[in-house]
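User: Please predict structures.

Assistant: First:
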Amino acid sequence: MRDPDIQRVFEIADDSLQGVLGYHLYVNAMHLTADAAKIMENLPADHIPITFSWDRFYRKQDLIDAFKLPIFEMFQSRVSLIAIVNVFDAALVGFISCLNTKGYRQYLGKQYLGKPFLKQCIEWAYEQSLQCDVGDREAIRRLPGTFGIIDNARRLRNLIVHNHGLFDGNYEKDAIRSNRIQIEFHPHYSIFKKDPRRPTPIIIATGDVIRFTKAHIEALHILHNLIEKKYFRIQKAYDYREENKPIEWNRVLWGQAKVEIQFTEIRT
């Protein structure tokens, strides 16, 4: 029987990553079919609340113009990337914490992972995943490239939240150089390197979000299979393809909570 605590960490992360992708695709589709006049009607009149004490003046048309294509998709892709990285971070910390609590103390080299940073978690996850010998063999062979994508997502996320989404020298310096991980760089980083004084923004789109999602979900499955076999002697890989069921969006987005009923109760 699978360990219930490890299984819970895995399923929450797996559902959440699918939820982020589903939301991203839905919002992009909604934006493509939206009526600008209807959006104008439903925006706040002329001020946006900024703090509990004060609002800030804005113009509706300015906001609508700011999010015209392709800008909307690029900004939404940044938001989705942040969510993907944060979900994966929580999953890795959850796995490590569960294993430590159950007496399987986790290390990166000789360093005990008590409260690890995301970079350490990714290195740990990669080293663990390389030991996996159950499940999708092609996915296991892709691990050096897959974790290169994952580490690139981490570094891009850091630039988005810490550097206004602009490239800097830390993007390259902070790359994980560990045991054959294939270091990946955003193609526009070369523009920054030619002229570091020029502000060069991170531009990603829906195709990138899909690729990042694939990498994180694939690595999550391999790591989960490894943990279940290595520590709990579960030989069978987790594979929801065998069930051949469509995505259950209520489960993915709300954990099977009866949201409509609770929302109605709250409003009344």
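Second:
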Amino acid sequence: MKKTVLIGITILLSINNLYSQKQEKIKVPRVNSSIYKTTIDSTEVSFKIAEKVALNMNMKKYHENAYSKSYKCNTGSLGIYSTAFISQPLKPAINAYIKTFDNKLDLKQNEQVYLYGFTSALAEGKKADRNYSRMMMSAYKQEMDLDYLNNSNNFITLKQIEKSEYWKRNWINMGYGMSYIAKDNPFMGSKGFAVGFFYLWEALHYIPIFGGAFFGETQQDKVAIPLIGLTSLIVWKGMIGGISSKYIKMNKDIHKSGYKVPNNLEF
């Protein structure tokens, strides 16, 4: 009889232990494009500081609600990128956790915490989004934490993209210009594809430019085909320059902001 009672108690204790260890997963927006932290200290969360960072990065506010403020930057005729600062108080009824891209944030039952961070959209893929979110979070932390700011080990040097150098290379070859933009650029996605495509696309234009005189059937064709190829190439060089202005502007704004670049970017 005693043995049966002990077994029963053991089973009940095991069930209770399993229940107490159960965790609720709390979902957060755009987890693979974001950097989030949690804190029990509400003074570490500041929409005012987040806005200061966004404005210093040459962005403008375009939307807000109780838990977020969104900012965007217009890069000209061919692009907009954006980021949002999110903060929300959490007090889970049971032990809970938030699964981020590369971490797990544990939350204790009935403990008031604050979730905060940045989520970004660069239209360059999730890795570039995460990198920009890391840049924003680092800038935010540089405003809030002097020890972090003054520790040089926390930062790296970001290559400066010069507009004049890009255009010089672009007029030589679109792929050559794009490789200058892409090299060591953590805020650009599909870099290998972009560079390869524009090397190929430029090469294809040389077929009518240099070959039109040989495979044109009439004298008019022999003149028109190279001219069409050359005109197309010039138009494309101008168009790709417009596309690349996004990366040039973003790089310039980061350097002008005065914020250091964090060492945890994905390349």
